Amino acid sequence: MPVYDQHYHPWAGKPRPRWHRWLVITRYHLSLLFTGKGRNILILILVSAGFIHFCFLAYVYVMANRQILEQYAIPVERLPGINARFFLTEIIAQTLTVAILTLIMGAGLIADDRRDNAIPLYLSKPLTVTEYLLGKLGVLALPILGITAVPTLLVFVLHWLGGGGKEFILTYWRLPFAIVALSVLIALFCGALMLMASSLVKKGAIAGVVVVGLFIGHNVLAGVLNGIFDSRKFMIISLQFDFYRLGLWLFGLEHVQEAQEFPFSGLAAAGVILAATALCWAILWRQVRPVEVVK
User: Is residue 3 part of a domain?
Assistant: First the structure.
C-alpha cells in the first residue's frame, strides 16, 4: 500500500548570516516580554521614561520660544541653560528606570534556561556561546539604549535645529559621542551584571534579589570603608559614583565643583566600570559553556 502522507520535509529556508544570527534570540525574547502577562508593566515603565524625556524636550521648546517666558514674566537668566550638564542630567534621570527595566526584563533570561536545561539545546543549534550571550544581552541593551541614548540625541538635535544654531553645535559637537559612550557603558554593565546573576541561579526572582543585594552591598562597603579610614578614596568602589564621575568627565564638566569633590579621575572611574563588566562576563563564560556529550 503506497504511503502519500509525509510528515517530515527538509527545511527549504536559508540559514541566517553568522553576524546577526544572535538577533533571533533577542527578537524572540522581546516579543515574548511584550506579549506576556507583564507587558502592561513594561509599557508603563517605558511611558514614564518617555515622560521624563518629554519634560526635557518641553524645556528646550520653551527656551527656543522665549516670548512664552516673557509673557509670564519669568526671568530667563535665572533658568539653567541648555549645555553639557543639561544632557548629562537627562541621562542620569533615567537611572532608576534603567534599573527597574533591567530587573524585570533580565532576571529570567538565563535562569529559566538553566531551570529547563535549555542551554545545551541552544548550543546544539548553529549558535556559539558568544552568539547566545549576545542575543541575551540584546534583550537588555536595546531597551536601555532606547531610553537613554536615542531620546537624548533627539533632544540634542532638536535644540540644535530649533534654537541652538551654529554656535551651539560648534561648542558642543562632542556631546553626541559622550551621550552614546555613557549610554553604551550603562547598557553593557547593567546587562552583564543581570546576566551574570541570572546564570548563577535557576529562578529569575532569586537573580533579581542577587542583583539588588550586590548593588546595595557594594555601596554599603564603600560607606563603611570611608568611615573606618576617614577617606573619600573608597568612593571609587561604588559604581553609582563611578558612573556619575565618568559622566562628568565625558561631558567635559571637569571644572565644576562636583567633579572636584571626587578623589579620583573620570579615567579611573571608567577603569573600575570596565573591570566590573569584564568580571561579570568572565563568570558568564564560566557558567554558560557547551557540554561535551561524547568524550
Answer: no
Whether residue 208 lies inside any domain: the answer is: yes
Cα separation of 88 and 54, whole Å? 15
In whole angstroms, give the CA distance from residue 271 to residue 142.
24
- Identify the DSSP state of 163: I
Distance (Å, whole) CA 291 – CA 124 = 9
In Å, how far are 60, 73, 75, 233, 262 from 78, measured between CA atoms?
A: 15, 12, 6, 35, 28
Domain count, the chain: 1
Nearest to 266 by CA among 246, 251, 241: 246
- Say if 27 falls within a structural domain: no
Cell 524625556, located at residue = 53
Residue 295 lies in a domain: no
Domain that holds residue 177: 37-287
Q: Give Cβ neighbours of residue 179 (< 8 Å, ≥ 6 apart).
A: 87, 91, 148, 149, 152, 153, 156
Per-residue pLDDT of the chain (295 residues; tens, 9 = 90+): 555 555 556 656 666 676 778 888 999 889 888 887 778 889 999 999 999 999 999 999 888 887 777 777 777 777 788 899 999 999 999 999 999 999 999 999 999 999 988 888 888 877 888 899 999 999 999 999 999 999 999 999 999 988 778 888 999 999 999 999 999 999 999 999 999 999 999 998 899 999 988 888 888 888 888 788 777 788 888 898 999 999 999 999 988 888 888 888 999 999 999 999 999 999 998 888 765 555 4
CB-CB contact of 122 with 113 (8 Å): yes
